[in-house]
Specification:
Chain lengths: 492, 401
């Protein structure tokens, strides 16, 4: 791949189209870096994860102030247990009702902190390709916050389960989600034990996470996988963090990692047959064998490659591209960075430019990136409100299939007018992004979108209809609103 | 391009192809004779036992020492209003719903609901809105009202909500949504709307962009006119009746299938009986439905409203003078020509033995079977159309429509 960046002057249309999909659209910093490095070095730097997850100092400070970000998962869960015990011991009455209310409020605060963390990293993260993949995998391995204790572990899930593996091996990512308290709680594997088998996670692990609904497994395979998964769960906080009582043969089979545990007392040790292969009853090793087996199926390479291409390239991505990505997936044993490289170096990525409608997350994140261009905001609540209004809050998908990746879910008439209203809130500055929570609203002013970035990277490619609309704008605020509402900005 | 030109070109574009169906109804007034259907979803699981009071059951009074509503008693204004020899109505509905009962324009269906046993708000709401058999959901993104709307060509549909509810998701055509709780000024004036729509001309989203903007313009204008006529100052709905009158304005002329939801029913603590949270909510709901009937005028005779909720609540009150998540509930069916003034559907005596898991009402009438029977009758749906709307349902005719 030749380095095609022009160091001076405007970038080529190909460069811009490529960069708009590589990140949550453009801002000055990403364009400048791309100019410096050229496309292939820019991509290398992202895929090798050398950039790090650094944020502007003000944003880092804001994130560090959140309880979810300075408290360990174990401590959060112990805190929850203490709160629950305190409430249980209180006599019935108003004080108890108030304590319950307070606990709910606390849980909602923790969730909002987790959601804000994810949105702020998407807006300000330097490795924009990685930030998109973090969102993509959070959605692929979707968990719903309102269930069980997930509000307490949602941030851990994003930061410690998904993020470290977002560009790594797919198999490691599956194992990380499998051992995460969020997934164990959401799909009930924490309850899956010998004699009380729960198939929920086993089914979705194959149907939604790896093979796809027609991925060549049977109901028999689901049942066998459920048996393999018995005993993998969450350390019961009631046990004061002591290991369970185990017989001498069982003791070496016990595994504990953070709040994950494999409890051999709860495991079914029979031999299993999964996808035609025998898996000897041996304890947690069965899980590793099963995940190896599943993630090496050709169906898994196809399914995962197609979803990635659907997110970046088009609602119906070209089959030839998906096939090449799947080939890379198999050849590299599920190396996500290599699969992404195949896609980002493909001709199809550029040939389909301007055809993919941004989902609400991409729209909100890219609007804030373009409008404020790296300026650190002080209040991320409006970002969450906008995600709620557009119906795509992170950790808010009830069903385990994640938010739709195609445009049909996001382009109804109600969605469009809501999107224009949010473009207006951002474009006119009529929002609280720069007003600290709790302080009276002060006029933060409207952003200036007519910048060098605009003239270099956006203006040259605008359609006639959008130019026409911008020419009719009666004020800078209106001009901003039209640009953020335009099809040119909302498709990439 | 001015607004008139724009509307003209949108109309021309709409007539040119299948996007005709995606147009949200402003170009075609629906034939006057087609029936109207409004689904009202009470989110949170309302306590049906203090709406429809089983006053002949001693077990009711034992189970609710602080929450029970007194047996009908002419000298006590806080006693239940007798509907028949077993059931009474919460007296807060005396001036709103009871007159409809006397005109036989409302029926109640007790022991109604779904077979989803999760007792989780979200799972059960989703279960009902999907309309698919429990445990056999094949499409997480498809709602039964969307499928219903898709089986018919002359039924313009709309959700009166901020976001499109699952009930209306996943259909073949665009379903608009707009909340009528408050009527602020629309975000964009006509000039701005025309410019925004203009940018999308010739793109696949042209109709969606212009429909969405246009609906907001139109609604705001109509409702402001209406409010000026009524000489009411406040633009924000403080109660459901303001909202339902606005809904009636749209359902009267343009739309035939609607959805609205009302929250605040999850009364775990201090729910009250004939005063308090639940009474306020019921009173607000009752006034809203009565106002809807009134605002529709003659068209009320051509209208059906069904009120549902995800589940009922525990039959016994809890330690906080509230009730917890339960199972079976009571649905309401209203309309000028419904066969009302009666308690419909299969019933059992209300006592401890008949409770499900010694906790709550069982479900004897599944919502899919009941709505399926009703909708099929209303619109003359074929068996296969009905199976699209509610796969695997066995439509039940409760003789209501």
């Amino acid at each position: 791949m030749p380095a095609m960046a022009a160091r001076e002057g405007t970038l080529s249309q190909d460069d811009i189209a490529w960069l708009r999909r590589d990140g949550f659209d453009l801002n000055s910093a990403t364009v400048a870096r791309y100019r410096d490095l050229g496309r292939s070095r820019y991509l290398d730097e992202q895929l090798s994860d050398r950039i790090g997850d650094d944020l502007p100092p003000e944003i880092s400070q804001l994130l560090a102030s959140y309880e979810v970000n300075h408290t360990s998962t174990n401590d959060l869960l112990i805190g929850l247990q203490d709160e629950q015990q305190k409430i249980k011991d209180m006599p019935e009455g108003d004080a108890k009702a108030d304590a319950r209310k307070f606990q709910q409020q606390h849980a909602n605060d923790l969730l909002q902190q987790a959601q804000q963390t994810e949105m702020l990293r998407a807006v300000y993260g330097g490795n924009q390709l990685k930030e998109q993949m973090v969102w993509f995998w959070l959605n692929h391995f979707s968990v719903y916050a309102a269930k069980g204790r997930i509000r307490w572990v949602a941030s851990d899930y994003a930061q410690n389960t998904i993020r470290p593996h977002a560009l790594g091996k797919f198999r490691d990512l599956v194992m990380a989600t499998l051992e995460s308290p969020a997934m164990l709680e959401f799909l009930d594997n924490a309850q899956n034990a010998k004699g009380h088998v729960n198939e929920n996670y086993a089914r979705e692990l194959m149907e939604l996470h790896t093979l796809g609904v027609h991925g060549g497994y049977s109901q028999q395979d689901v049942q066998q996988l459920a048996l393999i998964l018995t005993g993998s769960g969450i350390v019961p906080p009631k046990r004061d963090n002591q290991p369970p009582r185990l017989s001498p043969q069982m003791q070496p089979l016990y595994i504990r990692q953070g709040v994950f545990e494999f409890n051999p007392n709860r495991h079914d040790f029979s031999d299993k047959t999964l996808l035609g292969q025998t898996i000897k009853g041996s304890g947690f090793k069965e899980v590793e064998q099963a995940v190896d087996l599943i993630t090496r199926q050709p169906a898994c390479a196809q399914f995962v490659s197609r979803k990635i291409a659907e997110y970046f390239v088009g609602d119906q991505p070209p089959q030839a591209l998906v096939d090449r990505m799947a080939h890379t997936f198999r050849r590299s044993d599920g190396d996500i960075a290599k699969v992404l490289r195949t896609m980002f170096e493909s001709k199809e990525l550029l040939a389909t430019r301007g055809k993919k409608f941004k989902d609400p997350t991409q729209f909100v994140v890219s609007s804030v990136r373009l409008a404020y261009d790296g300026k650190p905001l002080v209040n991320a609540k409006p970002l969450l409100n906008w995600m709620n209004q557009l119906g795509e809050p992170v950790f808010g998908r009830l069903t385990p299939d994640g938010w739709p990746l195609d445009s049909t879910g996001w382009s109804s008439s109600g969605q469009m007018s809501k999107r224009f209203e949010i473009a207006r809130a951002i474009g006119t500055g009529d929002n609280r992004l720069f007003t600290p929570e709790g302080s009276p609203k002060v006029g933060a002013g409207f952003p200036m979108l007519t910048t060098r970035l605009y003239y270099d990277a956006i203006e040259p490619n605008l359609s006639a209809a959008t130019r026409d609309a911008l020419a009719k704008a009666a004020s800078q605020q209106e001009w901003n609103t039209f640009l953020l509402s335009s099809p040119d900005f909302n498709f990439r | 391009m001015n607004r008139r030109q724009f509307l003209f070109s949108a109309a021309t574009a709409a007539l040119a192809g299948p996007s005709l169906l995606s147009y949200s109804g402003k170009l075609f007034a629906a034939p006057a004779s087609t029936p109207r259907f409004l689904l009202v979803f009470l989110r949170g699981g309302y306590d049906c036992n203090n709406l429809l009071v089983p006053y002949s059951s001693d077990f009711y009074y034992q189970s609710r020492p602080t929450l029970a509503i007194a047996k009908p008693d002419a000298s006590n204004p806080n006693s239940a209003i007798a509907l028949d020899s077993h059931w009474g109505l919460n007296p807060v509905l005396k001036d709103s719903i009871y007159p409809l009962w006397q005109r036989k324009q409302i029926a109640f269906v007790p022991f109604a609901g779904t077979d989803d046993m999760s007792r989780s708000h979200f799972e059960t709401q989703d279960n009902i809105e999907s309309g698919e058999p429990t445990g056999e959901r094949t499409d997480y993104r498809s709602g039964f009202l969307a499928r219903l709307s898709g089986t018919m060509t002359t039924v313009p549909s709309i959700a009166f909500t901020d976001a499109l509810p699952l009930s209306f998701q996943g259909g073949k055509r665009d379903i608009p949504n707009i909340s009528l709780r408050g009527v602020g000024k629309p975000a964009f004036d006509e000039r701005q709307s025309a410019i925004l729509s203009g940018m999308y001309q010739g793109t696949p989203l042209a109709a969606a962009a212009s429909d969405g903007l246009d609906l907001r313009q139109k609604v705001s204008k109509e409702l402001q006119d209406e409010m000026m006529k009524a000489n009411r100052g406040a633009a924000t709905a403080k109660n459901f009746a303001d909202e339902t009158q606005r809904i009636a304005t749209l359902m009267r002329d343009q739309y035939r299938l609607g959805f609205v939801d009302v929250g605040g029913w999850d009364t775990h603590v201090n729910q009250g009986s004939t005063s308090g949270q639940l009474a306020n909510n019921l009173s607000n709901l009752g006034q809203g439905l009565a106002a809807y009937a009134n605002a529709l005028g003659d068209e009320w005779n051509n209208t059906i409203v069904v009120v549902v909720s995800e589940f009922g609540r525990t039959f016994r009150e809890n330690g906080n003078r509230g009730t917890d998540h339960g199972h079976g509930t009571v649905y309401w069916v209203l309309g000028g020509k419904v066969n009302g003034g009666r308690i419909a559907g299969e019933q059992v005596a209300v006592n401890q033995q008949s409770l499900l898991q010694n906790r709550d009402y069982p479900v004897l009438t599944n919502y899919r079977d009941m709505l399926g029977g009703m909708l099929a009758k209303t619109w003359g749906l074929s068996g296969s159309q009905l199976q699209t709307v509610f796969p695997g349902a066995k439509p039940k005719n409760l003789g209501l429509v």
